[in-house]
Amino acid sequence: MAWYYVNDNAQPNGDHEVHVYGCSWLALVVNKTYLGDYTSCSPAVTKARTIYSQCNGCFYCSNACHTS
Ligand SMILES: [Zn+2]
Question: Cα of 24 to ligand 1 centre, how many Å?
Fold first, then answer.
């Protein structure tokens, strides 16, 4: 299990990135929302989409959920 967070600030393309606690990119995120404790990024991204319509997995820590 891992703690997942979503960046409250969108990327330039509008995506709100989902990160695992401990990701070095998450450390750079100023405002984030805790999503929950999950075994994979998939349910975390689903949860994030209930908050922000446009979400994407982090390329580095949640690559399985990263698109485009
Ligand atoms: Zn990440």
Answer: 7
Q: How far is the CA of 59 from the centre of ligand 1 (A)?
A: 7
Each residue's pLDDT, cut to its tens digit, for the chain (68 residues) gives 999 999 999 999 999 999 999 999 999 999 999 999 999 999 999 999 999 999 999 999 999 999 97
What spacing in Å lies between the alpha carbon of 42 and ligand 1's midpoint?
14
Structural domain count of the chain: 1
**Cα 52 to ligand 1 centre (Å):** 17
Q: 18 is in which domain, residue-wise?
A: 2-65
Residue 20 neighbours by CB under 8 Å, 6+ apart = 2, 3, 4, 5, 26, 41, 58, 61, 62
